[in-house]
């Protein structure tokens, strides 16, 4: 059990810790492309970063769709998470001139292009 002093120090440190995300350390398309170039059938750091990042963006976009009451991308019911990740990887490979763009922007654009709503 934490003492009162320990709890105060812990709370102060947690509140004063630097934020994890800032535009200066945002993942770029080059970063994500590097992680997604790994063999997606094998569990390793790069695969985990790729899958986790893409799925986080998909979750965020799904929430955005609900809030806006407008579909941003429309995968069929047979599309799997792996299909989505492969589509993003192909899009990143085909758009190497966009390497310095924040990755979440290209992931969203890839989903809109690959899985358009009709």
Question: What tags apply to this protein structure?
Answer:
118 residues; 10k-s Protein, Hypothetical Protein A, Chain A; mainly alpha
Would you spell out the secondary-structure blueprint of this structure?
Elements: H1 4-16, H2 29-36, H3 45-68, H4 81-94, H5 103-114
Helix pairs in contact: 2-3, 2-4, 3-4, 4-5
**Helix fraction bin:** 55-70%
The structure class reads: mainly alpha
Over the alpha carbons, how many angstroms does the gyration radius reach?
Answer: 18 Å
How much is the average pLDDT? 81
**What is the highest CATH level, the class?**
Mainly Alpha
For the report, how would you describe the main beta sheet? Answer: none
Spell the H/E element sequence.
HHHHH
Q: What is the name of the CATH architecture? A: Orthogonal Bundle
